[in-house]
Specification:
Number of strands: 40
Radius of gyration: 31 Å
Number of helices: 7
Structural class: alpha+beta
Distance between the termini: 96 Å
Largest sheet: 7 strands, mixed
Number of domains: 5
CATH superfamily of the largest domain: Zn-dependent exopeptidases
CATH class of the largest domain: Alpha Beta
Length: 613
């Protein structure tokens, strides 16, 4: 009897122990957050966070996660879809197991479904796909307007335009093996999703002379299912005025961006006070003429309309000359009015190409003031309204430039190369006296979060402070854009340039977008925009790989704000990944951050040895 009582007591104690152990099991999920709307791509999602107790194991939707000794984890798992209230949701089940028990946690998410082909047995329009035209457009007669809709596949389609007595045909097309851009950039490259989406209908029409707020109506027809029609939101008008419309760009702390098309790639940067001839408007974007066969798109928030009768913008230029000063050589161009311009850098040999629009050359005088920096200045008028100026340089590497107007005088200031410190070649300290700016990435935003909840902005600042100390110990003058006080991203370029540095480095740590497997794609990377920064970017990239011994995540040209600082040699570094538990743990140590700082320090030191003159 006594043995039986002892047995039952042991069982009860074991059950209480298991219950207590189960109550101590916890999950802190850092990503994805509960308000994320997850987009289905057919690929697993990555999830990061911490579990307790230390030493526990974790499965996410039956897939094993990688768990560090302290409970930080990263896992890849496919989401489980289910229906609730006629809505598709997704969930992850986290199964945490210990030697004495296990506990499950469930997280439910809203889902953004992938683009799919509609069933062919019902007549429908896909309102998750844009019905073009989406925005109001005012275009010159002869321009083409694209019309598009997605719906049931295998139909006949046409559209009508108010004011044009014609039915315009539409042809069905499809998307085949559409690739994922995240993987194209950060993953395995242009691997396709092996999907085919049907039921996309395209058409177009040419704008006649007189069209005013015309409505486009699209009709899809099936012999068996009937017809369905949809009116496009954007209305179409002819841009046909006897009085030219002229706008003038506003002045901002950062230059106004002129684009190749609405919301598309950067074409050039526009100073304030530049007049542009409007040739059309799409939504909130002005289409403006740069030359007879070239346009640029400007947001209407960046310009104001001038009075009717304002002259069509067009300038003349009579002379160019250089002006030598202590830190730079200025190429001055005397225009009769401010014009748009574009600066293009070339390497091997080093040169700068300057394109000026809405101008006709009358140049018969070019004066190069015996500058050692500039070898030769030549010019050409390759087409009507465009002046091309080529400036060849006597230097190993371009060190930065700035451009802007003083009245109607366009000044292109080209920074002179850093002067080599005197002494024994390759032994003299070339960092002494150099002006360098470090930008700790993020703040006020946190940046990426690690599984342990580490905020990227804090790690970036610590690395910046350690690098600052190394550079200052070598005699450099080092400034930070900010420390603990937040600084908005759009204010950082001005802050960098206030110190007139030779080099600026923005310091970050990385995370991949959803759709890319971070367990395969992680490590050290460096980013640049202007060719002048590529040699330094290469040196920093190599040093990071040699010193940190992480994967090579890549050397990228990237249109990042902190790399678009032409006044200095500007790069952005991402030494490690916040989202990988082991790399996050290393970033939390002084020793690993010191490795990062020393790698960047060595690269900067080698850059001055190689390229100072």
């Amino acid at each position: 009897m006594k043995q039986i009582l002892l047995y039952f007591a042991a069982v009860i104690l074991w059950q209480f122990s298991a219950l207590a152990q189960s109550n101590n099991i916890s999950l802190n999920l850092v990503y994805p957050t509960s308000n994320e709307r997850l987009e289905l791509t057919g690929k697993p999602f990555f999830l990061i966070g911490t579990i307790k107790p230390a030493g526990a194991k974790l499965k996410i939707n039956e897939s094993d996660a990688q768990v560090s000794d302290d409970g930080a984890f990263i896992g890849m798992a496919k989401i489980v879809l289910f229906k609730q209230d006629n809505k598709t949701l997704g969930k992850f089940v986290f199964d945490i197991s210990t030697s004495t028990g296990n506990k499950e946690f469930e997280k439910v998410y809203n889902i953004k479904p992938p683009i799919q082909t509609f069933p062919s047995d019902s007549l429908a329009i896909d309102y998750n796909w844009p019905v073009l035209p989406v925005e109001d457009q005012t275009l010159v007669p002869g321009s083409n307007v694209k019309v598009e809709i997605k719906g049931t596949p295998g139909l006949q389609a046409h559209f009508t335009v108010d004011g044009i007595n014609e039915n315009f045909p539409m042809a069905e097309t499809k998307i085949i093996n559409n690739y994922n851009w995240e993987n194209a950039v950060f993953g395995n490259g242009f691997t396709n999703n092996k999907d085919t989406v049907k039921g996309i209908y395209w058409g177009s029409f040419t704008i006649p002379v007189d069209l005013k707020n015309a409505i486009v109506t699209i009709t899809l027809t099936s012999d068996s299912l009937g017809s369905i029609a949809e009116v496009a939101r954007g209305k179409i008008s002819s841009f046909n005025t006897a009085v030219p419309e002229i706008i003038q760009t506003k002045t901002f702390s950062n230059p106004l961006v002129g684009r190749y098309a609405p919301d598309k790639g950067y074409k050039l940067f526009l100073d304030g006070g530049i007049n542009l001839l409007v040739t059309g408007k799409t939504g909130m974007w002005y289409q403006c003429q740069l030359a007879s066969d070239e346009t640029v798109y400007v947001p209407d928030s960046g310009a104001f309309v001038l009075l009717p009768g304002t002259a069509i913008p067009h300038a003349s230029i009579y002379a160019m000359r250089t002006e030598d000063s202590a830190g730079f050589v200025s190429v001055n161009l005397g225009l009769t009015e401010r014009c748009p311009y574009k600066i293009i850098e070339h390497s091997n040999p080093e040169s700068i190409e300057l394109l000026i629009y809405n101008v006709t050359s009358n140049i018969d005088w070019v004066y190069n003031n015996n500058s050692n920096l500039i070898n030769q200045i030549t010019w050409d008028q390759p087409k009507d309204g465009v002046l091309k100026v080529d400036i060849s340089l006597n230097e190993k590497n371009q060190w930065g430039y700035s451009a802007g107007y003083e009245g109607n005088l366009l000044r292109l200031k080209i920074k002179k190369p850093a002067v080599r410190n005197s002494g024994i070649p390759f032994l003299t300290n070339q960092l002494k006296g150099r002006v360098i700016v470090l930008d700790p990435g993020h703040n006020p935003d946190t940046g990426a979060l690690g599984p342990r909840g580490t905020e990227e902005k804090d790690v970036n600042l610590e690395i910046s402070l350690q690098l600052k100390e190394l550079l200052e110990d070598a005699g450099a003058k080092v400034y930070l854009t900010h420390t603990t006080n937040p600084l908005a991203l759009k204010e950082r370029k001005e802050k960098v340039n206030s110190f007139n540095p030779e080099i600026s480095i923005s310091i970050h740590n990385n995370a991949v977008p959803e759709g890319v497997n971070p367990l395969e794609h992680n490590g050290s990377s460096v980013y640049y925009y202007f060719p002048q920064a590529l040699p330094l970017a290469k040196l920093v990239h190599k040093e990071l790989l040699d010193n940190l011994q992480l994967n090579d995540f890549g050397l990228f040209w990237d249109n990042l704000y902190m790399t678009r600082i032409p006044e200095s040699i500007s790069i952005l570094v991402e030494p490690a990944f916040m989202t990988i538990p082991d790399q996050e743990a290393q970033l939390l140590t002084y020793e690993f951050r010191e490795k990062i700082a020393k790698a960047i320090f060595n690269a900067v030191k080698d850059f001055y040895k190689e390229y100072s003159q």
